[in-house]
Design goal:
Elements (H helix, E strand, L loop, with lengths): L1 H26 L5 E3 L14 E3 H7 L11 E2 L2 E2 L31 H7 L1 H18 L9 H4 L6
Antiparallel strand pairs: 1-2, 3-4
């Protein structure tokens, strides 16, 4: 009987520790360094980008809603208190297909909405390029700076 009480107490204690650690992780915010990995690609052809959340949000004072979004009627209605989904939850296809000669081009808005590659590059790279045009400090703007060659 004593062993059963001890086992029940130990399991309860572990449960409490687990719950508190989950609450703490949620309260402290996102991980500082994230790798931009997505399941929409069969194979990643370039090195994955490592992104520093703290630099962007805290150091550079980029608002959460500048990157995180849920659009309704053309407005970003995402709130800081809402869950953050991975980009590929909505941008669920890898890369827009190449348009054959004589076929109409896929509109930019459709590419960004549907294709992960276009959405990421529009959001991240274009922000860096806009900062560069404004002569402000920026992150990388060339492909090789975000995606260095794979080591063999």
């Amino acid at each position: 009987m004593k062993k059963r009480s001890l086992l029940t107490s130990a399991i309860s204690l572990l449960g409490v520790v687990f719950v508190f650690s989950m609450v703490h992780a949620t309260a402290t915010g996102p991980a500082d360094t994230m790798t931009m990995n997505s399941k929409v690609y069969k194979k990643h052809k370039k090195v994955l980008v490592t992104f520093t959340h703290k630099k962007h949000n805290v150091d550079y004072k980029i608002a959460c809603a500048d990157c995180h979004h849920v659009y309704k009627d053309g407005k970003n209605v995402w709130k800081k208190t809402e869950a953050v989904q991975k980009c590929d939850a909505c941008h669920s296809e890898a890369k827009a297909p190449k348009v054959k000669k004589g076929e109409p081009k896929i509109p930019k808005k459709e590419k960004i909405t549907k294709y992960h590659y276009s959405a990421i590059h529009e959001n991240c790279v274009m922000c860096h390029k806009d900062l560069k045009k404004a002569a402000k400090p920026t992150g990388p703007t060339a492909c090789k700076d975000c995606h260095p060659k794979k080591k063999k």
